[in-house]
Structure formats: structure tokens, C-alpha cells
Amino acid sequence: MSVHSRLTQLIESGLDREQRDLQFIASLPSELRPSGSNLICYLALRAQDHRDLQKELVSLGLSSLGRCEPAVLAALTAVRHAAGRLVEPPLSGCEPEPVNLSITDGRSMLDRRTDALLGPRPEGRTVRVMVTMPSEAADPASTFVEDCIARGTNAFRINTAHDDAAAWGRMIDQVRDASERADVHCRVFADLAGPKLRTTHVARRARSKGAVRLRIDDRLLLHRAADGLPTGAPAEVWITQPDALGGIRPGHRVGFDDGKLVATVESASDECAVLRITNAKPGGQKLRTGRGVNLPDTPNPLPAITEADREAIAILAGGVDAFCLSFINRPEDVTELLTLLRETDADPTAVVLKIETRAGFERLPELLLALMQAPAGGVMIARGDLAVEIGFARLAEVQEEILWLCEAAHTPVIWATEVLSSLAKTGQTTRGEVTDAAMAQRAECVMLNKGPAILEAVSSLTDILGRMEGHQRKKMATLRPLAVAGAIT
Q1: I want to staple 155 with a disulfide (CB 3.0 to 4.6 A). Which of 187, 305, 425, 434 is the partner?
Q2: What is the three-class DSSP state of 361?
Q3: H helices then E strands: how many in the chain?
Q4: CB of 128 within 8 A of CB of 121?
Q5: How many CA atoms lie within 13 A of 69 on its CB side?
Q6: Which one, of 121, 103, 124, lies nearest residue 112 by Cα?
């Protein structure tokens, strides 16, 4: 089959899927229906393997389909037209057909939604910088926020898992006051904690010192009741919200402490699950209370919005520009948050979906379509828990897929977790971190976490993003002049 015919099939496939989902697309706000249609066409395209077609397009000197996300049908139609013109004589009927969304329109829609979520683009770069506020940012005498803005910060994040309502209010005031003095408009994001699972108690037989060292092949008893009594097993652990263990089964994985310890379920009863440690550093890894727990293979029955989150929403609605929804797994959770926000009677508040679970990633297309009901929205790649959930080896692949799907939905992305982490904590960075920060330029915003040297990290990040701006826009190389391309002497 000719390249032209294969491209025709792809166009028809996209139109067929769009037609099947026409009723759903019609339920979206009118200004976002083109985005919904484009995402559905992109899903139809990516449901098939096109590697051979890509090679043929490149061999013909044609643009490949690797940058089609902003406007799928327009890109396919343009490439088909070019392919038809390469035939002698040119194929009839290969003129570009009218499409509802041009490539330029698609990129413009993403730009507008980015501005709506993150504010006007900063001078010299399109990618914004977000900083997580430490407790000191609530001190009226602190210059933290002012110093961050001076170095290029565009948005600030309040982590509602820390501090309290009074401190959050002072943080917001600091941002508003410092932004006004600097004549900029920095956005404030409130990160809802969600149903984060943590260890509440760890015990070893005959003694308990708050930490248990576990080695590969050690057994660990995971209790399924918050008030379960020690059984005398060699090592035992309890977690917050044990209801999350309702679906745990033999063979399921359990991660502890950001994946530093990984175990597999050997057996499960109504009272507990017996785990075998399958991954730990040489010499063993200590497990303490308050450490994160991940259940990547176990269906999570917990809603994304907790009672503590509801209280935070009631306090912060109208004061912040956006809420970040943690551990989102279901479109219903997006709808619930939007309902809660409407009930506050506050100004329209944006919503950011934090993709940090395997289920959240696997249902991302549904979540993106649900997000289109928000006045403004975005997606955060929360790479900490996500890496544990999907496996570190898959993280680079998965974060790419998230970027592609979000671009097809014209939804801005926030690249988060451990960006320039060593620099923020110690004042010294690593080569890998610098490369990671440069790769983050393909998102619309990059988030830095807390650390003693966070100001140095902000300066470094804005410098890296500014340099990369001239070379790359999303997946497109811009081909700015290279200094090394001068004459050979």
C-alpha cells in the first residue's frame, strides 16, 4: 500500500473515532470541543504501530508524524498532500482538505490554556518556574518570596500537608504583596495532600526502636487493621488508611519509602498480608514510621479528596489560583472537585491533576477529558510516587507519553519532583540533574521543591530554560544558529 493510501486510512480512522464519540465531545464546553476531538483523534492514531510509516516518510524527505499532537488531522492531511505530490504525475484529489483545527490553531490553544493556568509568559522564555514554599515563607519578615521572584519564579506552591491555615494565609499575602512590588503576577497553587499512604508503626520481634532493617528475602507482616496488635512476627508494619489494602492479593507489589524497599505479597488474609522483600540496598534498608507506601498492583478504593482536603478547599478557595489534586485515579474525582469549588462561590479556580499512580496514568485520556470542564486546568507529572508505581525503568517512557497526550489535549504540563534536587539541598548539582532540567523545557512549567539553596536552584533553572528556549519548543527543534557552525580555521 502506498504512503498516500496509508495516510488516508489514518485520517479515516481518526474521523471514524471522532464520529463515534461525537455525543461526548458535544458535552464539553464549546471552546474546548476542538481539544476533545483532537485528543480522540490522537488516541486513534496511537492505537496502531506506525514505525515503518515513519521511516518511509523520512526517506521521502517529508515531515514525519512525530510532531502532530497539536492538530492531528491537519498534520496527517498536510503530509498526505505532500506525499501525493511526489508521485509522477501527482495524484488527483491530494489538495489539502479543510480541517476544523489547524496546526497553528492547536498550538495557540495550548498557549492560551497555559496563560490561563500559569499567567502571562515571562520575558525571554515560555516555560514558567514554580517553587514550593517552605514554612519560613509565612514569616512576614522573610524575603524568601521576594528573592524567588527576583530570580525568575512565576508561581508558588503551598503544600497543605504541612503548616496550617494561618500560615497558608500569610504565604498567600507574601506572594501577592511581593508580586505587586515587582509589578508581576505570580500564581499561587494549593497542593491537596490526598490519600497518601504512610507507615504508622514499625516493629521487630522483641524490640522496637522506630526503625527496622530489612534485607532481600526477609519477611514483613503488613497489618490490615489500624489497631491490630503485634503478633510476634520477625517484622511488622501498620499503615494509614488500611482500607486501601482491601484488594491486596498474592503477587502484588508493595513499595516503601519512595521505592527504597520493595516487597511482593506472598499471602493475604483478612488480618494481614505476608510480604517478602525483593529489593533493598546491600546490607539492608531501614524502614521507619512516616514513610510512604505504594500499592501499584492493588486497586485503590479510596477517593482522591479526603476530609482534610475538603477543609483546605473551604479555607483556600478564593485565595489561591489553582488546586492540585493528588493521587487522582478516576474522572469522578475531577467532577467532585469541580463541584466543591462551585459550591464555594469563589472566583473560578483552576485544577491541576497530579499523575502519580499507575491507575492515574492508565486513565489519563479520561482524566484529560474530565478536566476540560474546569475553567482552566493542567497536569503535573509527579515523578516521585509515579516512579515507584510504574518502576524506575519506565519513568522516562511514561513521562514522554504524558507530555504527548497533554499536548494533544492542549493541556499545559508541570514537570515536578527532584528537579535540581541536589543543588537545592546542598548547593552542588550533578550532570544528570542539569540534563533533566533541560529536558523539562518541553513542559509548560517546572517545579522546584524546598531546600537551603533553593534560590541558587531557581537561578540555575531559569538560566537553563532560557538557553534551551532558542533550541527547542516542545518536540520541535527550532534550529537557531550554532556558534560551532562557523568557518573552520
Answers
A1: 187
A2: helix
A3: 17, 19
A4: yes
A5: 23
A6: 121
Q: How many CB atoms lie within 10 A of CB 337?
A: 25
From CA 199, how far away is CA 256, in angstroms rounded?
A: 8
Judge whether residue 456 has pLDDT over 60.
yes
Residue 368 near residue 39 (C-beta atoms within 8 A):
yes
Place of cell 483523534: 41
Instruction: Say if CB 312 and CB 344 are below 8 A apart.
Output: no
Model pTM above 0.85: yes
Distance of CA 243 to the CA centre of its chain: 26
Half-sphere exposure in the Cβ direction for 268 (13 Å, CA): 15
Q: Quick one: cell of 78?
A: 498536510
pLDDT per position as a tens digit, 334-373? 999 999 999 988 878 899 999 999 999 999 999 999 999 9
Closest CA to 351 of 410, 412, 442, 440: 412
Residue 112 makes CB contacts below 8 A (sequence gap 6+) with none
Using alpha carbons only, give the angle 255, 258, 262 rounded to the nearest 5 degrees.
30
Q: Which three cell numbers stand for residue 456?
A: 541558587
